[in-house]
């Protein structure tokens, strides 16, 4: 057993003590994954996520991030704290939030743990340099994780680990010394296509290929503007992310729950009507520690409006009518659609009365679409 093997093993054991659930090491980004990523971009499947086109050199050549890099330590942190099934997705009273976002922002939770592991690496390999990423940098973390033996990229494009499932965060530490490498993971999806068949918006356009522009996670989190009308009904009660493709994955029947206290849900699952009434200060207070703050209030209430439009709940008409006077045009626009869905032609006098002085183009456009749909 070499000294490098011993040092790598000590680092791995320390990582487990810190609370990491998976540890693996690889050398570089697999060439085939770089080519696949470029083809994906050529199809414009990244939508408005312009950052995915930046730093292509860094994504393919880790030396551009850390000169002299020889190892990538890939880490897995399970976040599952509660079971979830498809029944909840059909509960129209509540908003469905992706499991990872029910708790404190994982970036904040994991940073100290990673810094301690960095210190351990520098203790074992004196004088080495490191660079840390927690889902924040321009690297292809899923291909790296597969090469490091943490799991394989499934047909839904999430990483899956045998005996564990896919409910976990990935992170990496680049190191300019050679650690002992791990055996890469082998794809075990077989002929299964459960994730492809369940996707409400048919965003998995082929096995292992996701068109982000159709994905509910993209539509509710990454997209900053108007949600395309053709996807709204398919969104159901999803208001922040979507776990459908993971819930039906057979490998997640083995999903391992975490003991990490910080990943416990911050509060009760929100009622949609309660959320549509939420003001700016309420939003900041409720979601200040949550990943949901990313969407800002206007993004979340845009999503909530769509969910209420899909709910069939006529008790939402009053709160939605009040929201027609919201100061955010993006919210008003989606409230218009929601009222049209709930009330059909009865929505028209409400819209005329409350929006007779409307000046914003996106709201006016929604009113026209509702009128055209109902009058036809």
Automatic annotation (TrEMBL):
Organism, as annotated: marine metagenome
SMART domains reported for this sequence: EZ_HEAT
GO molecular function: 4 iron, 4 sulfur cluster binding; epoxyqueuosine reductase activity; metal ion binding
PANTHER family: EPOXYQUEUOSINE REDUCTASE
Domain 4Fe-4S ferredoxin-type, chain residue ranges per copy: 180-209
Name recorded for this polypeptide: 4Fe-4S ferredoxin-type domain-containing protein
Keywords, in A-Z order: 4Fe-4S, Cytoplasm, Iron, Iron-sulfur, Metal-binding, Oxidoreductase, Queuosine biosynthesis, tRNA processing
InterPro entries linked to this entry: 4Fe4S_Fe-S-bd, 4Fe4S_Fe_S_CS, ARM-like, ARM-type_fold, PBS_lyase_HEAT, QueG, QueG_DUF1730
Matching SUPFAM superfamilies: 4Fe-4S ferredoxins, ARM repeat
């Amino acid at each position: 057993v070499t000294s490098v093997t011993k040092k790598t093993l000590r680092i791995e054991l320390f990582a487990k003590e810190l609370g990491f659930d998976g540890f693996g090491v690889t050398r570089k980004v697999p060439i085939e994954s770089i080519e696949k990523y470029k083809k994906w971009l050529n199809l414009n499947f990244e939508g408005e996520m312009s950052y995915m086109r930046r730093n292509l050199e860094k994504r393919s050549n880790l030396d551009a991030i850390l000169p002299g890099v020889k190892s990538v330590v890939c880490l897995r942190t399970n976040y599952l704290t509660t079971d979830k099934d498809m029944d909840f997705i059909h509960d129209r009273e509540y908003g469905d939030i992706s499991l990872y976002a029910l708790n404190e922002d994982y970036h904040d939770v994991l940073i100290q743990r990673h810094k301690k592991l960095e210190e351990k690496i520098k203790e074992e390999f004196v004088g080495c340099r490191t660079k840390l990423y927690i889902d924040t940098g321009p690297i292809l973390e899923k291909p790296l994780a597969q090469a490091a033996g943490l799991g394989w990229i499934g047909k839904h494009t999430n990483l899956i680990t045998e005996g564990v499932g896919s409910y976990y965060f990935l992170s990496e530490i680049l190191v300019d010394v050679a650690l002992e490498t791990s055996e890469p993971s082998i794809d075990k999806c077989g002929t299964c296509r459960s994730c492809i068949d369940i996707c409400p918006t048919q965003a998995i356009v082929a096995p292992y290929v996701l068109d982000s522009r159709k994905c509910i996670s993209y539509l509710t989190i990454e997209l900053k503007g108007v949600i395309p009308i053709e996807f709204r009904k398919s969104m159901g009660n999803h208001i922040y992310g979507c776990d459908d493709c993971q819930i039906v994955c057979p490998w997640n029947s083995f999903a391992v729950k975490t003991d990490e206290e910080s990943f416990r849900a911050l509060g009760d699952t929100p009622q949609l009507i309660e959320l549509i009434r939420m003001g700016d200060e309420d939003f900041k207070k409720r979601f200040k520690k949550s990943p949901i703050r990313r969407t800002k209030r206007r993004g979340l209430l845009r999503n909530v409006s769509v969910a209420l439009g899909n709910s069939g709940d006529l008790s939402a008409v009053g709160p939605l009518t009040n929201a027609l006077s919201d100061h955010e045009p993006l919210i008003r626009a989606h409230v218009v659609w929601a009222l049209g869905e709930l009330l059909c032609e009865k929505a028209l006098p409400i819209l005329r009365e409350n929006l007779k002085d409307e000046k914003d183009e996106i709201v006016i456009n929604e009113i026209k679409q509702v009128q055209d749909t109902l009058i036809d």
